[in-house]
Amino acid sequence: MNSQTNTSRKILLTGATGYVGGRLLPRLVSRGHDVRCLTRRESGRENFNLDEVEVSVGNVLNMDSLLQTLEGIHTAYYFIHSMGDSEDFEKTDRKAAENFAEACSRQNVKRIVYLGGLGNEADDLSKHLRSRQEIGDVLRTSTAQVVEFQASIIIGSGSLSFEMIRALVERLPVMICPKWVRVLAQPIAIEDVLAYLVEVLDKPVSDSRIYEIGGPDAVSYGDIMQRYADQRRLTRYMIPVPFLTPYLSSLWLGLVTPLYSRVGRKLIDSLRNETLVTDDSAAHEFSVVPRSVDEAISRALVNEDSEFAETRWSDAFSSGGEQKSWGGVRFGSRLVDSRCREVPLTAAEAFAPIRRIGGSTGWYYGDWLWKIRGFMDLLVGGVGVRRGRRDPENVRSGDTLDFWRVEEVVPDKLLRLAAEMRVPGRAWLEFEVTEEEGKTTVRQTAIFDPVGLFGILYWYSLFPLHEFVFRGMLRNICKAAVGHAERVDSAKAA
């Protein structure tokens, strides 16, 4: 191939709502690439900005839809696997790859970019790693050039491996560490993976290639757990034992972290295999300089804060306005309790009591409970509620409101408070006001980022009280807004 830029060539992105694909898509769009995304269902169109990308509804197990999707495509990213969907995922993945390879040949696709897994074929590879490498072999039966990146553990907020590590470290002060916890891997930050996937578009590669990619550190899962614990300032004890097979470990994982047990039990079987870079061609042929493990973990936590701050709860939760599970909803490491009410007011009228919250105005419900909480905070060296607020009517970023600090305020739209009381983690209280078609929705969201098992126990033990107080607070805020608006209207009429 020549080195002509790919920005004028049509790109197909499969798995565009998945972990890697979902992060790659905005990078491709921002660089001016013409992108088509494949989704299995018509309703999947709602996940994309249709002004930026073209969306094709199809299924890799259906050749007709696949041929239509690949029409006019120059480069196709293949990020499809069914490990979480089927017990016989190897057979399903093989058939999907066979269809994709054939369809790419029939539609004269020039290049396929695939993200697989590291692992020495001479070893007794797990089903997961064996399948990942087999898919690369199947794709290379296509007439298209195939560029395969083989990676070890991907570190980033939301990646399965990272979230399993987070869940184990946060929940278990003492961990029994079987032999596989000491098996070496070469983790890579998600940002570095994406950099490789973008750079390859403009890279002139003459034949199909396999590039092994990884960070500079060869570490074990146990090392990563300890480094994560250090950055979260958690003390964790790891006890090595010569037994506990991957299968038994996967059952244990299901008990401790049931959220990840479905695919985690398949993935954890791969931990018996070393996943190290043995061919450093990628380091010489690409400009990417991978981050260290410590930097990758740090970046994952920082990026999670940024991504979380951009979440709009009116979009994240159902139109019913409430989460469905007791204890709130988990977003990454955070626990979120959100609710909303509608009022027949303008956004400015609905926001008025919110900007007055705290200080002499109080918290609209259970003020005596807030005072008790403040007194308890003073006893443990916290700030309590004695600080009040700077101005009774207006707030600005940086203001103190009793034992909260204003993190962000957007007039008549948003107030986000960060807790400064002593808690085993980080806490926020957010109010969002949205006006539409003559009515306004007031959403109240409590957010907690627990540190360690004590932080999790703290949230769930206090959740019934939070449910009682926060529900009453939102009800009275809306009641105060309506009452004030009615008094203003009466005054005007008089």
TrEMBL record:
The chain crosses the membrane at residues 237-260. It comes from the Bacteria. Keywords: Membrane, Transmembrane, Transmembrane helix. InterPro entries: ComplexI_NDUFA9_subunit, DUF2867, NAD(P)-bd_dom, NAD(P)-bd_dom_sf. GO terms for molecular function: protein-containing complex binding. Residues 15-145 form the NAD(P)-binding domain. SUPFAM superfamilies: Bet v1-like (SSF55961), NAD(P)-binding Rossmann-fold domains (SSF51735). This is NAD dependent epimerase/dehydratase family protein. It comes from Mariniblastus fucicola.
